[in-house]
Amino acid sequence: MTVREGSLEAPTRHPIDWKNPDFYDEDKLYQELERVYDICHGCRRCVSLCTAFPTLFDLVDESPSMEVDGVKKEDYWKVVDQCYLCDLCFMTKCPYVPPHEWNVDFPHLMLRAKAIKFKKGEVKFRDKLLSSTDAMGKLATIPVVVQTVNALNRNPSARKVMDQMLGIHQERVLPEYAATKFRSSARPRDDFPVRDGSRTPGKVAIYATCYVNYNEPGIGHDLIKILEHNEIPTRLVEKEACCGMPKLELGDLEAVARLAQTNIPQLAKLAREGYAILTAVPSCTLMYKQELPLMFPDDPDVKAVQQAMFDPFEYLVLRRLDGLLKTDFKKPLGKVAYHIPCHLRVQNMGQKTREMLQLVPDTQIHVVERCSGHDGTWGVKSEFFANSMKIGRPVFRAMAEPGPDYVSSDCAIAGRHIMQGMGAGTQAQKAHPLTLIRIAYGL
């Protein structure tokens, strides 16, 4: 439970009423935006979290009345555009979230505004493109095409054109696409005996995610090696599509629903067969743990998937509590600067990755618990790149402070962003926490 000032109760998340016609009523949206903006203006606790709140407070302070009623309604959207739905204000800062009578859910209000904006057709081609992670991955990883795409993403002239034509910032370091996809190359073992624990199912199904499948398959292979070392029968989810988080952040809720129609039946079947479902990307885990259950609160299949979904380190630490995890680590990791991403923090399960890394002998973990500022596609966009680097600056400094051997984040994109912010002078290696555990096992 996250304890907030003024409340000893855990935040309560209400279902997203996205099928109600009133959800898309712009006049009613403006009324709710004005109500919540006024509460936020009177409180201002979240000013340091991101750029959405400073944008709001500047609009208020520069208005004729110096109150929310003095802000032009069309300027309300400037705040919406700065929100990337990290959920930290709701989960860690705001004293007025439900069950408080003021019922403030700032991220889901921003989601409602984004959904209306999308329905009105006020979304750029670039944003639709960047949120189509599965389609882009399939295209970019075609043999020969993959080499061309990666070369263009590294070419300064090509990046300048992408900046001018698409609005993808020329200085943003983009992840490469892999020549061999994770799902086509993974060989998990399912021939070990199933050993269920009181806290954990004894067999695992891996939901690859778009990023692991197309960009960093090594993360998925490391997870398989860790599970195999611990003699846990493992398989891949037979068929999967994007989890829907990029489309959710765009406000395209119909696309989220279509993706759920592909994914949920496959995952629910595995859940009912007694599998723990693991994803190595916190945003994807959060999608199944929180956002889809709030969009489809009465769907028993969605509920079954929610209960079976685990972050990999949540599963491994619970496995240890069940007395079923090997801790025969052979290699120390030295100094590790470890960043906890927002979409992991808001899952409210504690610092399970840190707990696991601290089991490795002769290893020092320096934890940074602050938003890196990248957030999926937001930090890629030309108009938000500078803000993403500004938000991340305290993280970059904190990660560099111990002179680490490794820089690590459960969010691989945040890890790349942090490495870019730390600059070329850093001697640290970037490695996902799963990679670090695989190294520590000597695998």
Automatic annotation (TrEMBL):
Keywords: 4Fe-4S, Iron, Iron-sulfur, Metal-binding, Repeat. Pfam families: CCG. The keyword DNA damage does not apply. Residues 204-287, 336-412 form the Cysteine-rich domain. InterPro entries: Cys_rich_dom (IPR004017). The keyword 4Fe-4S applies. This is Heterodisulfide reductase-related iron-sulfur binding cluster. It comes from Thiobacter aerophilum. The lineage of its organism: Bacteria, Pseudomonadati, Pseudomonadota, Betaproteobacteria, Burkholderiales.
